[in-house]
Known about the structure:
alpha+beta; 58% helix; WH_DNA-bd_sf
Amino acid sequence: MNDRFIGNAFILFGFFRGKYLMLTRPSTEYVLLGTLMSGPRHGYEIMQFLDTAFESTWHVGTSQLYALFKRLEMEGLVISSLKEQEDRPAKRVFSLTKAGEKSFLVWLNCPTGNVRDLRVEFLAKLFFFKDLGLKEGDELITSQLQMLKKNKDRLRQRYENEADSYNRLVLEFKMSTVEAWIDWLDVSARPFILDIGDNH
């Protein structure tokens, strides 16, 4: 993993087979790719999977789901086919391509750039590590910790140079949030990930 910090945002680069690939796709699209990692699914099965796995976190409407998959198919990340059913309309079944699997795995193994996205995006990544029985999650935890510590150092530097009391208060809040995530990653997330490796 590599990162560049511009203003208040990280631009992330996932490392895959010796190359850095910039992650520019919305997280929802990566999650949709992840729903196909265990095999082909039709739209209703994907909706059920999202509702069961993430409850309301990743709610995607039916029309939006098909629009996103149409774009992913145009980009060569998924393929679809119609499955005929007796006395019922045909179902459109989606499958991952090799490029789609690669794109998903790069995203999965790259830390989340913005602290505000950790609650949704990073937890989704932990779910996929468990659901797919993947063993490389400890590297993700380490990379995420490194990124958060860099973030904390930048906030600390801004805090030390800030004279306005309100701005200092805001920076204190941001630092405490980052510190809470660092503690949670060490105390809870890392044991969770290591347990996956031990049980697969």
